[in-house]
Amino acid sequence: MKPEVVQSYKNLLTQRIQDLLLSTGHVVQTMRDSNETMPDPCDQAFQEFFHTISFSLRDKDRQAIREIREVMKRIDEGTFGICRMCKKKISEKRLMAHPATTLCIDCKRREETLQLNHRTIPESFSAFDWNMEQ
Ligand SMILES: [Zn+2]
Fold it and tell me: Which residues contact 105 (CB under 8 A, 6 or more apart)?
């Protein structure tokens, strides 16, 4: 992947983290008080910043930020945009829509089919457990 493309993904992801954080009033207040700009999500400063504010975030937002940081890590490692199953390149269109994805569309579909096939098993087990407690 070209360095300028990588950089544009990084910018996009940093922007997404900022949007997420700014959607909570507490964080805006914190940032205004400290009078600092948003740290780079790969920096140690962000680790500390994220730790400080994470208690005020909803689980969904925390999860999203964690995923974005995972993507940043993969960008730095050079594995971003490569399918973890078949090792082929994931299409840029797919990455733009779902930057956190680690699967190409073919492998994703295969995984979803597998998950659908497995879904009936835990449900029948939990129903069984429930009956046993009666
Ligand atoms: Zn694949």
Answer: 90, 91, 94
> How many angstroms does the Cα of residue 56 sit away from the middle of ligand 1?
37
Question: For residue 123, what pLDDT band results from cuts at 50, 70 and 90?
Answer: very low
Please state whether the predicted TM-score (pTM) of the whole model is above 0.70. no
Q: Ligand 1 centroid vs 17 CA: distance in angstroms?
A: 27
Distance CA 63, CA 70 (A): 11
Domain CATH number, residue 32 = 1.20.120.910
Polymer length of the chain: 134
Q: What does the alpha-carbon distance between residue 81 and residue 95 come to, in Å, rounded to a whole number?
A: 7
The answer as to whether 27 is a domain residue is: yes
Give the pLDDT band of residue 129 (cuts 50, 70, 90).
very low
CB-proximal residues (5 Å) to ion ligand 1: 83, 85-86, 104, 107
Q: Where are the beta strands (DSSP E) in the chain?
A: none
Number of neighbouring beta carbons within 10 Å of residue 69: 18
In the reported structure, the alpha carbon of residue 110 is separated from the centroid of ligand 1 by a whole-number distance in angstroms of: 9
